[in-house]
Write a structure and sequence with these properties.
Number of helices: 3
Shape: elongated
Number of strands: 0
Length: 62
């Protein structure tokens, strides 16, 4: 099956740029996420980590 896909893609001009663009998008997204996580303030991390433990007035566990 891969042989058929590869055969069709070999005849398309400029198709080799798409894997490079995909890798760049992937890399930039995760580097941005990495930077965002490591620059978060500790107070914000503590506040967000305690959200599941707070009791909600509408959804109280019996």
């Amino acid at each position: 099956m891969l042989k058929f896909v590869k055969g069709h893609l070999e005849h398309i001009d400029g198709v080799e740029i798409f894997p490079i663009i995909s890798l760049l998008i992937f890399f930039i997204f995760f580097m941005g996420l990495f930077w965002w996580v490591f620059t978060m303030k500790k107070s914000h991390v503590n506040e967000v980590s305690n959200i599941p433990f707070e009791k909600d007035q509408n959804n109280q566990v019996l």
